[in-house]
């Protein structure tokens, strides 16, 4: 054997050994189709989105330290502050003015100063009040300025402040002392000594500005279930306006259709046999109305949604990108989810999309139910967006994001995993066609969307907030209501106000109204409002003059002023309402985005009501106004406890200014009437209890942008539809073998309450 032959054999042997090693090393590994495919990076600078970012816990701490050292007053931690103390109520980011932000994002200008908005309750003052300060620059504050008068036209009276957790604790202590004055009555009516009764607040608190009197409804409290379905028929009115807790008083008592001056008077009436007592057995955990404990053992698992090659979206800082979409996300501790700088294919479509308020308005023949108009922003829609349950609240493999807030404390808190982001397959074609005439083919595209979701628990109700971004360029916003209904004790003509859902439980009728701010920038900041609807014209047949035909035609109109673009609730509205750019598309039509609302809201309140102006945004299903920095929100957290002199009145935004080629905001109301029924036990289901709206491109593009989607499918009889190269659906059998690695299930949502 010569040297050349030996070398050839040696090379072959080494190659064989190398191949065997490769086989051994890759054995047991996922096939190449399972390798993570990182999503394409969008062109947006991720660091730019930080101009909208929520405060970090470290920034919150610095703001608190600055306030403690620079206001010249003693600050008490809100967790233990009395009404007569000064305390920090909340700290949130102060989003810079839009003009500053756009100079930075689009014009190469300087990054705006990062600032915080601090809300303080000053009870230890000659004139107690609520004051708001802008504090900056972050992360090392060096100044503060009082913006209360600038924002609201004057100081905020102290009685308008939201009720704190400490105030509720003190009220509950008062109620417990008062219940102790009627031991025989409580034992007879409720098998209770009062300590096992839960008190549910109502709101607003009185009948005129300055009042702070609240009805509290009492329920049997059973561990492990919602008490909201077990009213005992007893309600108490507590006056708690005085800065000295010792002067708070129980002013009235209601039981089973009758009113009494005090618990002692109720006890006397019971002992004298002057009242009818409905004896209610104390409910047991296993049989209590509304128990959510499973009644059957677990079955086989249901469908699992996962990404075979990893997520097709990317999250960096507070920005998520997905197939041409780019969105900056955040959470206001009061008003809830807020999105900024929403772009598609590099063009900004929406500057701000944010939840403003959630109203729940009840009817009943009991005082607590009939007086309840909850404005949930004053309780904290974002603050009470707790940790999401993986695999139920959101897909198991979704990306979960922590949110931080500082409210009623000097220490930041974290709601971990309280916002989720995922790609959702709707199991529905976005578009499709099977051609059976002339040429034969099939073409289609799956409907998938990026979803940003949070869920807020506001006392008894849970609201699911969804923001969805479709490959057609459409934005979908929707809210679903679930959780427990609120209830009243069934007596008299109670069923005039709802349905009986338990032995003594009236499911009380109520309205849900949700309000959103949508600052659209369609093809730039300057937009106009255009409407289109249909009419019929009767014309002679051009080919048969003796006959006529009813021909539909389009009525097009450009609205000139705000009054024209304020569409009252439940009144006819043009079917097409669009924000139009001065710039035309390829076909000569204004590039536009259409607002399409899906809602069945009931009347929010008669306009004649003394408190209607506080929720005057509810008058309109859609109102378009000129954008103004001094009109950042449609409501205020101070409206709840003084709706008779509202701090912010949305109706005043509509002052008939011109809306042609202006920077405009769409204010959208959605909602529904809910008459509780037997199937709301134990919980209200999301099916049929969802409302929302779409922002849809309308001549904004020259064609449907989803034609660029890599998920498109097309094949004809001449092709082998089973070949992976010809049809991406044929690739799924191999890709489906890529079972995801699921992280262990963990839940810490109870740790931060």
Automatic annotation (TrEMBL):
Name all Copper amine oxidase N3-terminal domain ranges: 161-258
Q: Where are the transmembrane segments?
A: none
Keyword check for Transferase: no
* GO MF annotation list: copper ion binding; primary methylamine oxidase activity; quinone binding
Write the Enzyme Commission number(s) for this entry. Answer: 1.4.3.-
Q: What is any one of the record's Gene Ontology cellular component terms?
A: plasma membrane
- Domain Copper amine oxidase catalytic residue range list: 305-706
Active site as annotated: 376 (proton acceptor), 461 (schiff-base intermediate with substrate)
Task: Spell out the residue ranges making up region: Disordered.
Answer: 288-310
| Keywords, sorted A to Z | Copper, Metal-binding, Oxidoreductase, TPQ
Q: Does the keyword Transport apply?
A: no
InterPro entries from the xrefs?
Cu_Am_ox_TPQ-bd (IPR049948), Cu_amine_oxidase (IPR000269), Cu_amine_oxidase_C (IPR015798), Cu_amine_oxidase_C_sf (IPR036460), Cu_amine_oxidase_N-reg (IPR016182), Cu_amine_oxidase_N2 (IPR015800), Cu_amine_oxidase_N3 (IPR015802)
Q: How is the cofactor bound?
A: Contains 1 topaquinone per subunit.
Tell me the enzyme class. oxidoreductase
Annotated Copper amine oxidase N2-terminal domain ranges read 72-143
Write out the PTM section of this UniProt entry. Topaquinone (TPQ) is generated by copper-dependent autoxidation of a specific tyrosyl residue.
Q: Which cofactor does it need?
A: Cu cation
GO process terms (BP): amine metabolic process
Residues recorded with modification 2',4',5'-topaquinone: 461
| Annotated family | Belongs to the copper/topaquinone oxidase family.
Protein name as it appears in the record: Amine oxidase
Record the organism. Answer: Nyctibius grandis
Give the gene name. Answer: Aoc3_1
């Amino acid at each position: 054997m010569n040297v050349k032959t030996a070398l050839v054999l040696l090379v072959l042997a080494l190659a064989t050994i190398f191949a065997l090693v490769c086989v051994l090393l890759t054995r047991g590994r996922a096939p190449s189709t399972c390798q993570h495919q990182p999503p394409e990076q969008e062109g947006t600078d991720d660091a730019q989105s930080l101009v909208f970012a929520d405060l970090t816990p470290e920034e919150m701490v610095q703001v608190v330290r600055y306030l403690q050292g620079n206001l010249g007053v003693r600050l008490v931690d809100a967790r233990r502050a009395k009404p007569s103390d000064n305390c920090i109520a909340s700290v949130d980011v102060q989003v810079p003015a839009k003009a500053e932000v756009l100079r930075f994002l689009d014009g190469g200008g300087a990054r705006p100063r990062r600032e915080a908005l601090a809300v303080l309750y000053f009870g230890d003052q000659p004139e107690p009040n609520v004051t708001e300060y802008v504090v900056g620059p972050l992360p090392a504050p060096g100044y503060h300025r009082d913006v209360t008068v600038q924002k609201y036209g004057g100081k905020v009276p102290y009685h308008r402040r939201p009720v704190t957790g400490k105030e509720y604790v003190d009220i509950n202590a008062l109620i417990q002392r008062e219940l102790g004055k009627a031991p025989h009555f409580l034992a007879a009516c409720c098998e209770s000594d009062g300590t096992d009764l839960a008190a549910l607040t109502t709101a607003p608190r009185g009948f005129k500005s300055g009042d702070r009197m609240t009805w509290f409804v009492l329920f049997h409290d059973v561990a492990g279930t919602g008490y909201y379905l077990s009213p005992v028929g007893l309600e108490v009115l507590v006056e708690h306006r005085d800065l000295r807790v010792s002067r708070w008083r129980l002013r009235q008592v209601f039981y089973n259709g009758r009113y009494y001056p005090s618990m002692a008077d109720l006890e006397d009436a019971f002992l004298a046999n002057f009242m009818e007592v409905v004896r209610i057995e104390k409910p047991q955990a296993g049989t209590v109305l509304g128990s959510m404990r499973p009644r059957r053992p677990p079955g086989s698992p249901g469908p699992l949604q996962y990404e075979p090659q990893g997520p097709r979206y990317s999250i960096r800082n507070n920005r998520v990108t997905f197939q041409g979409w780019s969105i900056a996300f955040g959470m206001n501790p009061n008003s809830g989810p807020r999105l900024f700088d929403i772009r598609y294919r590099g063009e900004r479509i929406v500057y701000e999309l944010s939840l403003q308020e959630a109203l729940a308005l009840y009817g009943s023949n009991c005082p607590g139910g009939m007086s309840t108009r909850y404005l949930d922003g004053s309780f904290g829609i974002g603050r009470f967006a707790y940790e999401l349950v993986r695999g139920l609240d959101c897909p198991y493999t979704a990306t979960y994001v922590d949110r931080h807030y500082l409210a009623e404390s000097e220490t930041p808190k974290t709601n971990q995993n309280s916002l989720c982001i995922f790609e959702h397959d709707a199991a529905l074609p976005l578009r499709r066609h099977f051609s059976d005439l002339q040429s034969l083919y099939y073409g289609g595209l799956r409907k998938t969307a990026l979803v940003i979701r949070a869920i807020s628990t506001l006392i008894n109700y849970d609201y699911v907030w969804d923001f969805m971004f479709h490959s057609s360029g459409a934005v979908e916003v929707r809210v679903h209501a679930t959780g427990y209904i609120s209830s009243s004790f069934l007596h008299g003509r109670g069923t005039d106000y709802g349905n009986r859902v338990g032995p003594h439980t009236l499911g009380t009728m109520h309205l849900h109204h949700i309000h959103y701010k949508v600052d659209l920038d369609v093809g730039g900041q300057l937009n106009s409002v255009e409407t289109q609807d249909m009419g019929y014209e009767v014309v002679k047949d051009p080919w048969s003059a003796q006959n006529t035909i009813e021909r539909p035609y389009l009525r097009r109109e450009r609205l000139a002023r705000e009054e024209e673009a304020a569409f009252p609730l439940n009144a006819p509205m043009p079917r097409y309402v669009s924000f139009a750019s001065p710039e035309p598309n390829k076909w000569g039509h204004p590039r536009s985005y259409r607002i399409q609302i899906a809602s069945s809201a009931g009347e929010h309140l008669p306009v004649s009501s003394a408190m209607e102006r506080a929720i005057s945004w509810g008058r309109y299903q859609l109102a378009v106004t000129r954008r103004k920095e001094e009109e950042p929100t449609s409501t205020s957290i101070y409206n709840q406890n003084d709706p008779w002199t509202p701090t912010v009145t949305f109706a005043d935004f509509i002052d008939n200014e011109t809306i042609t080629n202006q920077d405009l905001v769409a204010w959208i109301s959605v909602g529904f009437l809910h008459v509780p029924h037997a199937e709301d036990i134990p919980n209200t289901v999301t099916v049929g209890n969802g409302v929302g709206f779409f922002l849809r491109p309308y001549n904004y593009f020259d064609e449907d942008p989803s034609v660029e989607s890599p998920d498109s499918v097309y094949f004809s009889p001449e092709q082998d539809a089973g070949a992976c190269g010809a049809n991406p659906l044929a690739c799924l059998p191999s890709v489906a073998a890529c079972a995801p690695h699921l992280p262990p299930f963990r839940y810490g949502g109870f740790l931060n309450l």
